Amino acid sequence: MSTSAGVPDAVQPDLGQPDLGQPDLGQPDTGAPFVVQGRGGGLREVARRRFLLSLLVRKELRVRYRASVLGLGWSYVKPAVQFGVYFIGLGMVLRQNAIGDYAVYLFGGLVVMTTFGEALGNATRSVVANADLVRKIYLPRELFPVSSLAVAGVHLAPQLLVLVVGAVVAGWTPDPVGVVALLAGLGLTGILALGLGLLLGAANVLFRDVENVVDLVLVVLVWTSPVLYPWQRVADLLGADSWWFRLYQSNPLTVAVELVHRGTWAQASPGNALAMPPGLGGRCAVAFLVALSTVVVGQWVFGRLSGRFAQEL
Amino acid sequence: MTTSALVDRAAVEVSGVSKHFRLRHTHSLKEAVVWTVQGRARTDDFTALHPLDLTIEPGETLALLGRNGSGKSTLLKLLAGVMAPDSGQVRVRGRVAGLLEVGAGFHPDLTGRENVFLNAAILGLSREQVQERFDGIVAFADIGRFLDTQVRFYSSGMFLRLAFAVAVHTEPDVFLVDEILAVGDEAFRAKCLDRIERLAHEGRTLVVVSHDLPLVERLCSRGVLLDQGRLVADGPVRLAVERLRAAG
Fold first, then answer.
1. Does the residue B67 lie in any domain?
2. Which chain A residues have a beta carbon less than 8 Å from that of B173?
């Protein structure tokens, strides 16, 4: 137990600005700044505590797959089954496979939807699920939604591998624009999930109805973006110039799905690129702005409400 | 008690802090409608702490005393930053570790080893610091070969020992302890007390909530007595304890 060696270390991270007080009595703490309690540093503090974040993510994965034979393998099985159902049901029975390379098209969109759904669903529950910690120990509460997002990222990895391999097999030679579009699509999904996750995770502490509403909305989402069908169907239905169609196309998740399509599916066969919707670049910029502003709003609301978490749980 | 010269380097400063809770009687739409129709108030206000000032110097050992419901634990939670005050503010210098409940951050499905890392990180240590102190923590807890067993299989004594070992080894600048010293067997309890006394001797600030008056008299030098959310006495711990005993 090397206490004397450990003391200065314990204080180092907190040394921000010099303090006017005299360094007397050899106190370990006189140099540290005075910090107002109960006011977290938000996402910035989360970024400083990456070690804790990594441990929380590992805990989450360990707990989710406890006493499970397949373990992390379930993150392959679930998307595979979902993919199989849609591919057979929609592709073969309802003949959507008129879309070229339908398997790549479908899976690309599903990757966005499952990742978003998992991240947002778990982030919404994350504060309530960690009630024991929230009530007893101070730590930046933003860690909980952020770790939900990170867990979804871990589950995304194998799906992404399958998607890229599938696209290459279908004929995609990875092009720089495509790779950037793919990464931008996934990044957009993550940012949006984080912003909404902060907002809804905080709201769920006050009203547990929120998590049920989120579950409901997540079921609908797969239909409000061109995941299962081509975007032209919606344009035909709503009118390509109508406000409803513009609204449909402004949905950041629609943009994310289209970016992933642009990345993997568009270059897989010669005809595919022509079927991409026009104006993706501009909508992409807007979608990123929208997603980033949900993070700002989410962080603000979360910060405002987090002082009440301990007493509401 | 608090001259301005001292405030400059205080370890903890509580200024004008109050806390009240709204007790909701209705938890669903149906109940809310029924209660409203019946004309009953749906919420009750309960003041846990009236505006309160308190300055704690570095290295001070302070006991928060009072009967059940006097606001001790609420004040401790405000110091730890777990709750935000309704008015005023709490300022703390250095790293705070609150032991508001032994093993609050422990997860039954993780092994002892994993829990040590997770909890030490929650209490603010970096990876290097945990690795450096890991052996000390394990030696202190003395749980031997159970280290790599899931915590759910631990006896309650083993669980408490490990949790306490982590907490004292985080070596915080301000250490908050809530009614946890009644843990473990006699030998381990003595070891814990020694350790806490050593933390105090190293110049760390200690704030203890306990109903164990002899223990409080041994550990602390200053006593603060709370009654119904108000600070009613502040001075040498012996006087505060006497006053609490006299009040029955």
1. yes
2. 10-11, 28-29, 32
Q: Is residue B176 part of a domain?
A: yes
ipTM for this prediction: 0.83
Chain B residue numbers with beta carbons less than 8 Å from the beta carbon of A30 are 9, 58, 93
Q: CB-based burial of residue B11 (10 Å sphere; 0-12 exposed, 13-18 middle, 19+ buried)?
A: buried
Residues of the domain holding B169: 58-246
Interatomic CA distance for residues A65 and A72, integer angstroms: 7
**CATH number of the domain bearing residue B62:** 3.40.50.300
Which residue of B43, B75, B82 is the best one to mutate when testing the A interface, meaning the one whose CB has the most A CBs within 10 A?
B82
Chain B segment 160-189 residues within 8 A of A by beta carbon are 169-174
Structural domain contains residue B95:
yes
Nearest to B229 by CA among B97, B91, B45: B45
All residues at 6 or more sequence positions from B12 whose CB lies less than 8 Å from its CB, including other chains = B54, B55, B56, B79, B90, B91, B92, B93, B174, B205, B207
Phi and psi at B39, nearest 5°, equal 75, 25
Contact yes or no for A113/A156 (Cβ under 8 A): no
Per-residue pLDDT of A229-269, as tens digits, reads 999 889 999 988 899 999 999 999 999 999 999 999 998 88
Tell me the Cα Rg of chain B: 20
Which of B26, B93, B137, B209 is best to mutate for the A interface (most A CBs within 10 A)? B93
Per the structure, the count of domains in chain B is: 1
CB contact under 8 A, B82 and A30: no
CA distance linking residue A232 with residue A238, whole number of Å: 10
Distances (CA, A) of B121 to A55, A255, B146, B153, B220: 8, 38, 21, 23, 28
Please state the pTM of the whole predicted model: 0.84
Nearest neighbour of A26 by CB, restricted to B11, B136, B203: B203
